[in-house]
């Protein structure tokens, strides 16, 4: 696929390298030509100087053949405007914009632009590392309604089928991390020692789920 990235900062340059290593063609846009110094010497993609909401700049970057557009510059407004131009003017279906103001995420979502709220995501990642107990989110939808979380559970749940965990905790088990590998639960999947449990639920329901799982199950669950 051909992918256009706006913003050659640390995130943009890292994405460019990962995507190129995965076999995709990449064009990266930045208004500061010095920003392209972050790209490795062997980078084969296009370097386009300009702003990502300028039609000529986007066309030079190959937007008309792009399968995806990513806006990760340092400006929220620039990211959203350019993402909208990519989608509404050039018909790119897969677009994503980074923002710093998570309060505006719901507005952007209603405009049809998937967003990554940088501050909220960073805070969540830090919390997961400093608060090992309880439920810490791995992902939230832009409106903050749905959460995917890694949840600590009482040892009494070991040996319980994940189907039973869902029934007793009234939640949905998204996946189990077992020895570093993600495992999609089946009806006969049983929690084992060392499994990391991930659930997906309404954000407002996470406290209740955490409370249920922090104690041993109240009924036989084998």
UniProtKB/TrEMBL annotation:
InterPro entries according to UniProt: K_uptake_TrkA, NAD(P)-bd_dom_sf, RCK_C, RCK_C_sf, RCK_N, Trk_Ktr_HKT_K-transport
Pfam families: TrkA_N
Start and end residues of each RCK C-terminal domain: 136-215
Organism domain of life: Bacteria
Keyword NAD: yes
Keyword tags: Ion transport, NAD, Potassium, Potassium transport, Transport
PROSITE patterns the UniProt entry points to: RCK_C (PS51202), RCK_N (PS51201)
Boundaries of every RCK N-terminal domain copy: 1-118
Protein name per UniProt: Trk system potassium uptake protein TrkA
Annotated organism of origin: Sphaerisporangium rhizosphaerae
């Amino acid at each position: 696929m051909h992918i256009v990235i706006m913003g050659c900062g640390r995130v943009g340059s890292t994405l460019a390298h990962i995507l190129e290593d995965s076999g995709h063609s990449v064009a990266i846009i930045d208004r500061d030509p010095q920003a392209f110094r972050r790209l490795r010497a062997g980078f084969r993609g296009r370097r386009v100087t300009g702003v990502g909401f300028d039609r000529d700049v986007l066309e030079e970057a190959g937007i008309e053949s792009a399968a995806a557009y990513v806006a990760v510059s340092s400006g929220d407004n620039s990211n959203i405007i350019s993402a909208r131009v990519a989608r509404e003017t050039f018909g790119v279906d897969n677009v994503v914009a980074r923002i710093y103001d998570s309060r505006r995420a719901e507005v952007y979502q209603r405009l049809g632009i998937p967003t990554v709220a940088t501050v909220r995501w960073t805070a969540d990642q830090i919390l997961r590392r400093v608060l090992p107990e309880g439920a810490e989110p791995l992902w939230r939808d832009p409106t903050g309604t749905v959460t995917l979380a890694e949840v600590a559970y009482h040892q009494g749940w070991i040996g319980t089928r994940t189907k039973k965990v869902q029934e007793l905790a009234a939640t949905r088990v998204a996946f189990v991390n077992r020895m570093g590998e993600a495992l999609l639960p089946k009806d006969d999947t049983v929690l084992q020692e060392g499994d990391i449990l991930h659930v997906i639920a309404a954000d407002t329901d996470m406290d209740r789920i955490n409370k249920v799982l922090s104690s041993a199950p109240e009924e036989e669950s084998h």
